[in-house]
Design brief:
eight-stranded parallel β-sheet, TIM Barrel, single chain, alpha/beta, about 240 residues
Length: about 240
């Protein structure tokens, strides 16, 4: 199994990061993708890179209001940093309707999409409460490949993002007893475009809800997805899309 999205660099794992990785390996996890959330954390993310852990570099839209002048990027500098770090993707990037400064979010999202083309890498995309705007920006910026991380759109938007070259990853909420919208979306995703993630330390599966999530818990996400899409191989999909 592959955890296609996990923030293992965060302080939530400082006390037991090695033990977390050991539990993941024991659970059958063979790969973990850690996307950065801002340039000031890139060094910590890069330090995690290993045969088990792969990385992505970018700026999370929720970080936009906190960015410092030292964290400014160009598409060229981001592409070069990703290549130099051995990143397998650009991101996490995207749009967040609940975060201020939508204009800067859009500018940075476009910058990341251009960097992805320059570096010939897929994009890890966060879109929350902004599905009215994200497809338009993706069309305007031209073709990319990548993943809609922790997909929050409805089933009706799946064909739109699919046709824009994107796959779909789901986290712990697909295991919740009251889940409806994410399960409908899972059913609409072509099996070859379905991925699993934990988004750890957030979005823990039902059995751990309210606590810290970790990569080993991706087994529960995979089981929930398999019940809906029994022919999907989420690990093989992740390896193909990220050229792992």
């Amino acid at each position: 199994m592959i955890d296609s999205h996990c923030h293992l660099d965060l302080a939530a794992f400082d006390a037991d990061r090695e033990a977390v990785l050991a539990r993941a390996t024991t659970a059958g996890v063979t790969g973990i993708l850690v996307p950065a959330v801002r340039p000031s954390t890139w060094d910590a993310v890069i330090a995690l890179r290993s045969p088990l852990v792969r990385i992505a570099l970018g700026i999370h839209p929720q970080i936009v209001p906190e960015l410092t002048s030292a964290e400014q990027l160009t598409a060229e500098s981001l592409a070069e940093a990703a290549r130099a770090a051995g990143a397998i993707a650009i991101g996490e990037t995207g749009l967040d309707g609940g975060t201020d400064d939508h204009a800067t979010q859009e500018r940075l999202f476009r910058l990341h999409l251009r960097a992805a083309r320059l570096a010939d890498l897929p994009v890890v995309i966060h879109v929350l409460r902004a599905h009215d705007r994200a497809p338009q920006l993706l069309r305007e910026e031209g073709p990319v490949t990548g993943v809609m991380h922790s997909y929050s759109g409805g089933a009706e938007l799946v064909p739109i993002y699919r046709d824009l070259g994107l796959a779909f990853s789901f986290a712990g909420p697909v295991t919740y007893a009251n889940a409806r919208r994410p399960l409908e979306a899972v059913r609409a995703v072509p099996p070859e475009l379905l991925l699993a993630e934990t988004d750890a330390p957030d979005q823990a599966p039902a059995r751990h809800r309210g606590g810290r999530s970790e990569p080993a818990f991706v087994t529960e996400v995979v089981a929930a997805l398999a019940a809906l899409q029994p022919t999907a191989n989420t690990a093989a999909n992740a390896r193909r899309i990220f050229r792992w």
